[in-house]
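Retro notes, item 3 of 5
We never archived the inputs for the coenzyme A complex last cycle. Fixing that now. Sequence and ligand:
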Amino acid sequence: MDGSGIPVRQGMPLPFSSVRGTAGRRLCVQRRPPPWAAPAAAASNTWRAQVIRFCRAPGSRRINGMTTPYWPLAGLRLATPRLELRWPTPADLDALASLAAGGVHDPGVQPFANAWTEASPADRAQSTLQYHWQQWGAWKPADWSLNLVVVRDGEVVASQGMRGRDYAVLREVGTGSWVGRDHHGQGIGTEMRAAVLHLAFEGIGARYATSAAFEDNAASLAVSRKLGYADDGIERYFVSGRPVVSRRLRLDRAAWEAHRVTPVQISGLDACQSYFGYTQ
Ligand SMILES: CC(C)(COP(=O)(O)OP(=O)(O)OC[C@H]1O[C@@H](n2cnc3c(N)ncnc32)[C@H](O)[C@@H]1OP(=O)(O)O)[C@@H](O)C(=O)NCCC(=O)NCCS
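Structure as it came back at the time:
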């Protein structure tokens, strides 16, 4: 189903284009007769009715506002008790950009090695959009970066990323995240990290997950500690004109299992597994 509620079936050429109908509802509109349609059926039904039946056929899945059935990642969903993590629709991305413009952390701290949050609100919003578009276009099974929006009660409140390089062999993911400043300190950062860890270990068979945070980033380090990560050394960065120490953290499967407390449901993963370079 796309963002408008019309289900779309995967794996077959679509006989229609998608346009806006009344009240913003997206309609499937005939472009040419579908090759599988029998002439008798065509005589007794409008093409539009057939297309809608086709769209609602068993095996349909959500496409989440994308117009193509060839990007199953758009149908991936992680659900926790309070949150939904999903591939962003264009509207979700707008909301995320506005969230970034509104502030990601207190002025005076800089938690990112690439100090993108020091830009003006408008530039933060724009770079948020461009970052996502860039990562979408660059996706490869050998080098991917999954950037999900985090939605609570219908509102985009955070961004949760997970990255894999040579994942087929290494079975290791790295995570990165931020929560809109007005939503800090409510357990969202912990719950959304738990969600992608579940995707990594339970969904695509990870052996390790890594994270890193500057040594003054108490909240991020606390999230990692609660979820079972162990210290894994340091790195030093040049940030805003000064040296900064980053603490690397590593979580293995046994520690993940010992610390998991958040129930997480994954949907839409089957069609995506090869995109992560994952084979069982
Ligand atoms: C790091 C971040 C994602 C954490 O998200 P969050 O929703 O605020 O975190 P939670 O509410 O789940 O809190 C996690 C833990 O951090 C602790 N914590 C939060 N702020 C803290 C602070 N300033 N000092 C010490 N501990 C703090 C909380 O008490 C909680 O631990 P507890 O449950 O044992 O009490 C969020 O603060 C953020 O987006 N910060 C700015 C961007 C950032 O730093 N990103 C990560 C870069 S590595």
